[in-house]
Design brief:
Blueprint (H helix, E strand, L loop, with lengths): L1 H4 L2 H18 L34 H14 L4 H13 L1 H24 L8 H13 L4 H6 L1 H6 L1 H19 L11 H13 L3 H20 L5 H18 L3 H12 L13 H16 L3 H12 L9 H20 L11 H18 L3 H7 L1 H42 L5 E4 L6 H7 L9 H8 L8 H10 L3 E4 L8
Helix pairs in contact: 2-5, 2-6, 2-19, 3-4, 3-13, 5-9, 5-17, 6-17, 9-10, 9-11, 10-12, 11-12, 11-16, 15-17, 16-17
InterPro entries: DUF6056
Keywords: Membrane, Transmembrane, Transmembrane helix
């Protein structure tokens, strides 16, 4: 039925149309609002309680000044946060369009990396697998692909990281690729490596390991070229600039002094309790979603003859899995390990699964004929699940959008008051129930409580920034503080 009605391009457009709709329904929330202002490092930045008056960003010069201050007093993610500040200045509408293109671009990029094939060789099977993977298997997709700040840090930086890996993958699949590499490949890979390294910590680390293994392979094959070494050197340089930002230690001290953070006390770091929390909140929520991806790898591996199981495809799969799993293991030893840290890792496993799918495709027709009924039932079930989850997500996000817009109208009608108290944003109870089992796919109470909604305290940083952004005096929510766990 899918084959008769839609090409792979049609499937992609439908999927991106739904993604764009969800982007459009999501307002600027959480850190999006504070980053619409120039970062004031001299006054504790923009994200801590009691923040003072700030100046709105109105030019590229403001973004440069802001990012320098941010780098020196808060953290090293200047590319992702710089993009956030650009979109906070230009408006959410531009972000909605470009974010949809980046999302689709990452899907196509993983196809190129995982198979080594050109886009004309894309087909419905590849695209349906990509849609399934991106719809159901990405960790914290609401926070990593839709929320503006989170998307700039994870989705957009993931695109930079995989763009850097693309030439290595194409060289691996096609030995004649850049056989006589042009001179411009060296500066190109230098810039690409710097951007990939200076992206986000988890993705940069995994990219570094994958690149190191690629260099080892090409050296053994006597195919090592200057652009490869240059790219790796600048990747490392970018990573150093990211993690050694002077603001990292400043931020930790400021958060200790001023931020509401009932997290794990420092004396509980690297204890069984910390490892248990990291496993339950980061490692397992991410890796359990890899099971369908690993299944196709196992199916491919098992059908290989005994002496052919270590081949070009399985080597590629092993390298991608090594990069993915290494990050997840390291995150077990980090005091604060959110599931969204596994975004790059999951994308890498998706690329590995595509390489297995490429080798299994010649058997597709025969398998379908032998199990026609089961295949049709499985496809119908997946399509029904996709449609039902799409309806669920859009219902929840439309409801929350209307609450946000209604809140703005209410505050505008009472903006002469010194303090306006508004009702907290609520989600349908079933949203919380579903998100318990399927990571963070849409609004839930935890997302609202931990930074996305306003707080029942007038001095909260998001309350103050929200009021400044819309030109009001002070605003807070009713009810109790929902951050108490």
């Amino acid at each position: 039925m899918v084959k008769k009605c839609l090409s792979w391009q049609g499937i992609l457009l439908l999927f991106l149309g739904l993604f764009f709709l969800r982007n459009w329904m999501l307002p600027m929330v959480s850190d999006d609002i504070p980053y619409a202002f120039i970062w004031d490092g001299a006054d504790r930045g923009n994200l801590l309680d009691g923040v003072g008056p700030r100046q709105r960003i109105s030019s590229f010069e403001d973004i440069i000044v802001s990012q320098w201050s941010h780098y020196m007093t808060w953290g090293g993610r200047i590319l992702g946060i710089g993009l956030t500040q650009f979109f906070a200045w230009q408006g959410k509408e531009l972000f909605n369009i470009l974010n949809t293109l980046v999302f689709g671009g990452l899907m196509l990029l993983l196809f190129r990396i995982g198979t080594g094939l050109s886009l004309p060789k894309m087909n419905r099977t590849y695209m349906l697998w990509l849609v399934f993977s991106f719809w159901f298997l990405l960790p914290d997709p609401f926070l990593t692909t839709l929320w503006m700040c989170g998307s700039c840090v994870f989705l957009w930086m993931g695109l930079l990281e995989f763009l850097f890996l693309l030439p290595f993958a194409l060289k691996y699949w096609q030995p004649d690729f850049w056989q006589e590499a042009p001179r411009w490949t060296v500066p190109l890979m230098a810039v690409s490596g710097l951007c990939a390294g200076w992206s986000v910590e988890t993705g940069a680390a995994a990219t570094g390991l994958i690149t190191l293994l690629a260099l080892w392979h090409f050296k053994r094959q006597h195919q090592l070229q200057p652009w490869m070494v240059t790219g790796f050197v600048f990747l490392c340089l970018g990573g150093i600039m990211l993690v050694q930002a002077p603001g990292e230690m400043v931020r930790l001290e400021l958060q200790r002094l001023y931020e509401y953070n009932p997290g794990l006390p420092a004396d509980m770091y690297w204890t069984p309790l910390m490892f248990s929390i990291n496993f339950l909140e980061c490692f397992w929520p991410v890796t359990k979603l890899w099971l369908p991806l690993l299944l196709i790898l196992i199916v491919y591996w098992r059908q290989l003859p005994q002496g052919q199981r270590w081949n070009k495809d399985t080597k590629f799969q092993a390298v991608m899995l090594a990069g993915a799993l290494s990050v997840m293991i390291v995150m077990m030893f980090v005091p604060i390990a959110p599931a969204r840290a596994g975004f790059f890792s999951t994308a890498a496993v998706i690329a590995a699964s595509l390489s297995a799918l490429k080798e299994l495709l010649p058997q597709q027709a025969g398998f379908y004929q032998r199990h026609k009924g089961a295949c049709q039932a499985a496809l119908a079930g997946v399509l029904a699940l996709c449609l039902s989850t799409a309806a669920f997500l859009c219902y929840v996000e439309w409801d929350v959008r209307n609450q946000w817009l209604g809140r703005i109208d209410y505050i505008n009608a009472h903006q002469d008051q010194e303090l306006v108290i508004v009702h907290q944003i609520d989600v349908p109870p079933f949203a919380n129930a579903i998100c318990e089992h399927w990571t963070c796919v849409t609004w839930n109470t935890d997302v609202l409580a931990w930074g996305s909604d306003l707080e029942p305290r007038p001095e909260g940083s998001h309350n103050l920034m929200y009021a400044q952004y819309y030109g009001w005096k002070k605003v807070m929510t009713d009810g109790e503080d929902r951050r108490v766990e």
